[in-house]
Amino acid sequence: MVGFQHSHPVAAGRSSGATTTHGGGAALSIDFGIWEFVWRGLVLVLGLLLVIPGPWVIVWYLKWIVSCVHVPGRPNLGFTGNPITLVTWYFGAVILWAAAIYMAVNDMEELDHVMELVQIVLYWLLLRWGIANLASNGEPLGLSFSGWFWAYLGWNLLMAISFVTIIGWAWVVSAQARWYCRNIQGTRRQVVYKGTGLQNLWRILVMSICFVFIIPIPWVYRWMMRWQLSQTELIERGA
User: Nearest-CA neighbor of 65 among 1, 146, 150?
Assistant: First the structure.
């Protein structure tokens, strides 16, 4: 879930209209205040650690982060997901994570793999739920995610295998992002991701180094999100 932050050059972007790239597409953008990101992130982590408040803090956080995204032609982007809808998924995931830890400790490898598969199913369902609950000016956009589960599973397996190549995962990240975009349905414009493997590689490596020092995390996180959304464009179908 692009995370899974924002004062707002975004607000200026909303008033000035779509951002058009040299390729003719209208790029997405995001911005958020660093300290707002920090305290909201801490509340999110605390809520997840306490387990019970999890669905409510997740939806609360998603409503905020989505509102910081600017989509040309879709003013006041919002998120309409209901925490109650998330309860079954969330507590199912918590039980699975606990079971996976237990199986790993007790060397139950066969069942552990089954649990990993079920977790991937839950992440796929979460992705579909998140996209279906995007709205503009309080009205649902009517979007859906049409990517098959088996394709989603294949991307996860390819990602795991790609780490053997040391750097190949960056190209998988880019290709998977393009697959995500192709499978967003319900838009009059096509969603296209243009980031390349090399561009993702050096940025993610920089992020990893900065994360070690902890303090730069909010700034680096915002920098990465801005770039990722700038590589996501809306293009008229057939253009």
Answer: 1
